[in-house]
Amino acid sequence: MSRKMIVIGILILLTACSNTEKVHEAADKDNMSEVEETTNNSDVDNVSPAENNTFSLKEIDINQLNEIRITEKDGNRILFDDYLSSTEIVSETEAVFSDEYYDTVRNSSQALYCEGFDEDFDNDMIDTNISNMKFVHFDSSGTNTFSSFESPYNLIKKNTVLDLEGTDESSEVNVKDIVYGYCVDNITLNCFIKRNTSDTFDVIIDPAYMYGLPVYHSDAACCDYTVNGLNIKADTLFLNVADVDGALKDTLMRSSSSYVYAQLTFGKIDCSYGVKSGYNITASIDDYKLITTDTERVLTKSFMFENTEGKNPEMLRVYNTIMSNMDVLNTESTLGITLLDLDFDNIPEVLATRYSDISDPLYKGSDTEAADVDVYRIENENLIYIGTLYNYHTVIYELGNVLGLKTLEDGSKAWFNMSYRNRNTGEVSDTDYIFTLEGNELKFQEVFSKDKEGNYYYFGEPMVFEESTFTDEIYGQETTMYSWGNYKSRFGTWELIGKIKQGYCEDMKDSSFNLYSDWLSHTDPNNKSYKLQLTERMLSYNVAYLVDSYYLGSYDANKQYFEYRFLGDYAKPVIYLYPTKQEDVSVKIDLKGMLTCSYPEYNDGWNVTAYPDGTLINKSDGREYSYLYWEGKGAADWDMSQGFVVKGSDTARFLQDKLEYLGLTARELNEFIVYWLPLMKDNKYNLITFQTAAYEENARLYITPKPDSVLRVFMAYKALDDYIEVPEQRLSTFKRNGFAAVEWGGTEVK
Predict the structure, then answer these.
(1) Residue 501 is inside which H or E element, if any?
(2) At residue 166, what are phi and psi to the nearest 5 degrees?
(3) More confident residue, 465 or 151
(4) What are residue 717's DSSP bridge partners?
(5) Distance (Å, rounded) from C-alpha 322 to C-alpha 677?
(6) Cα first-last separation, the chain
(7) C-alpha separations of 744 from 82, 185, 415 in Å
(8) Is the entire prediction scored with pTM above 0.85?
(9) 267 φψ region: left (φ > 0), alpha (ψ -120 to 50), beta (else)
């Protein structure tokens, strides 16, 4: 009998979830997916379900599953759009697939609307909040090494499983469901909990405590709940708990069958989400502390400071001051409200971040966006304006509007501010300061600056760089070395300055503060922020939460653990032009971020005369160049799920082979290796990937006249202490045809 496997349509129903008093069930929502029929595969022709039409993956070679192409969409969000990489067959109908390419989870908007109390309950406000929350990657476990989803918890991502089924009358294979999931241990949350008639408990997590827990759904129907007769809409999760610590079970079983508000410590939460089947969340409860039985008051008002036992009396004063001045703090442009003790007197100052524009003709596009931070002192339940910090809003490495706490040589503390404005001249210019708050005055001291002539200054003194020559150990070429103290660079003063700044900020990794508020606005890297919709209860609760976190340290969402990085995300991209005849050429870059250095000077684009041998004559200065160089900052998401793990000592040979295969000439690949090898060769291992798609998406290149062939090689690498297994990346060979343009660059992923 002929045995054939024809991969055809995938029908997946996106599930919407609804909650009743007893169970939170999935509601159906149709969502048609597409699948590309597999062709020209002789192995597939030899596959069929088992005899008697019982489908079994056990009879299929796992590599044949890689031929299934899935296009799965949820509104405008693409869940899958490619051939997936299968990693394991786990049952007769289920297989594990890799989903590292796709955005599958988001943060909760922490929205809560109550019927009869919030006038927006019956409109689309919660839909708006959910749709405004960006879906991101969640593609690792434990420490979230390559994940875009940030969390204070130790989240363990579960395998993504495709549930497949065969048909009764043919050899067709359909995808029945796609199931994601994660686990988290030892987590304490405030929740609504009630006992069922059986030995189980229904738990609704208070949405104000949803920070850092991944959410998969995108449909507001998942947000409908009823708590003791009060209908609510909450962007949260519902748990059905059967596993309770034995010492607590008798206590909980004696409780009423109505919801109460309690602090629960979970030994484990296990969350699974099927695109068709919806949520299935189980948990174990290790500890229980009743807060109140008045759930309506919890849902409709802030009660945080009604019980002040064990709390500093200043907390209530700070809370009341912020709430009574909310018309000053929370305007249409406000993106963050933060408490920081700037003068170290144990009373916090209030910092309000406001979106604004940089009014300077030299700054265009996203570079015109600023995050001005107004600083207020709390005095007699009033806010006294102190001054403004001028921060970039354009987010670099997903961080832009930050302050770092610096320990000075004499042991005193000061705040480090990366400013877009020189406070002495008033000009728009990258200037870094340390500052202190003394009385009602912010006192600034300039650390790094650069004048119009390109001269750098350190604490107001000119920085004199030394130059020396040495012979390159690999190619025997004479090369210039730039140095300043113990800092050295072979590629120019721009890189040397970056290393100096990184060294200065080394001790601020664990004392840096993000001035945005995720409950007030949503900020994407390199995109304008937008405000979330808040009810009075949500605003009041989050301010109370902010005050509580400052004094008690129970919530640390505003503290960011990151490395200050001043070197560009796009390191030393160089552009070669090879026309078939002498030609005037215009080159422009559309970068999601900002250009930090260029040679020759960019001037809103390069205009050159290009020659077939690659020689370029820059029209603005008449000088000859071998290529166009640029350096930039950005926040692209680099996919490190596939690539090559190479010993540091083998890096040169690896790059020679791969770059030649990709299509670089000997001259081009030599210049690539000379730049990158010194940064990679001493690492124990390097995870190396080539990021064409993500690079082109974040740094578009426009060349006029349009070349006949374009090659853009962008390498992202990560230093490793130990060898790891990753799927090998498939590379394509470039063929030069007619007018050819070639570009290479790279970045280190921390």
Answers:
(1) helix 493-504
(2) -100, 165
(3) 465
(4) 688, 748
(5) 53
(6) 55
(7) 26, 44, 38
(8) no
(9) alpha
Output 293-296 pairs: Cβ under 8 A, ≥24 positions apart: 293/256, 293/258, 293/260, 293/261, 294/261, 295/192, 295/227, 295/228, 295/230, 295/258, 295/259, 295/260, 295/261, 296/228, 296/230
Which H helix or E strand runs over 661? helix 651-662
Query: Could you give the residue ranges of the DSSP H alpha helices within 536-636?
Result: 536-552
* Number of continuous H segments (helices) and E segments (strands) in the chain: 10, 48
Nearest partner of 330 among 535, 122, 635, judged by Cα:
535
Q: Which of 720, 746, 713 is nearest to 569 (CA)?
A: 746
Nearest to 152 by CA among 559, 562, 750, 637: 559
CB 600 within 8 A of CB 628: yes
Kindly report the average pLDDT of the chain as a whole number. 79
Look at the chain and count its residues.
750
Quote the tokens at residue 664. Answer: 């670089």
Q: What is the pLDDT of residues 586-645, one digit of tens each?
A: 999 887 666 767 888 888 789 999 999 999 999 988 888 889 988 776 656 677 888 999
- For residue 677, what pLDDT is reported? 87
Residue 329 to residue 335: CA distance in whole angstroms? 10
Which pair of structure tokens corresponds to residue 5?
């496997």
Q: Retrieve residue 299's tokens.
A: 């849902």
Element (H, E) at 677: helix 666-680
For the stretch 496-547, pLDDT in tens is 888 888 888 888 877 888 888 877 887 665 566 777 777 777 788 788 878 8
| CA–CA gap between residue 668 and residue 385 (Å, rounded) | 56
Rounded to 5 degrees, what angle do the CA atoms 515, 520, 525 make? 60
**pLDDT band at residue 36, thresholds of 50, 70 and 90?**
very low
| DSSP letter, residue 371 | E
Query: How many Å apart are CA 133 and CA 519, to the nearest integer?
Result: 11
Q: Is the pLDDT of residue 739 over 90?
A: yes
| Rounded Cα–Cα distance for residues 641 and 86 (Å) | 13
Q: What is the DSSP string of 229-245?
A: TEEEEESS-EEEE-EE-
Q: Is the pLDDT of residue 253 over 80?
A: no
DSSP 159: P
Strands of 293-381, DSSP E: 334-340, 349-357, 369-379
Encoded amino acid at 99, one letter? D
Alpha carbon 201 to chain centroid, angstroms:
35
Can you state the angle between helices 666-680 and 651-662, rounded to 10 degrees? 150
Taking the C-alpha atoms of residue 616 and residue 624, their distance in angstroms, rounded to an integer, is 6
Q: Which amino acid is at 112?
A: L
Cα–Cα distance measured from residue 282 to residue 267, given in angstroms and rounded to the nearest whole number = 11
Judged by DSSP in three states, 412 sits in coil
Contacts of 479 (CB under 8 A, 6+ apart): 469, 470, 471, 472, 490
Phi and psi at 539, nearest 5°, equal -65, -50
Q: What is the residue whose two structure tokens read 């405590």?
A: 209
Q: CA 664 to CA 19: how far, in whole Å?
A: 58
Q: How far apart, in whole angstroms, are the C-alpha atoms of residue 24 and residue 271?
A: 14
The contacts of residue 740 (CB under 8 Å, 6+ apart) are: 578, 707, 708, 709, 710, 711
Residue identified by tokens 């990679």 is 680
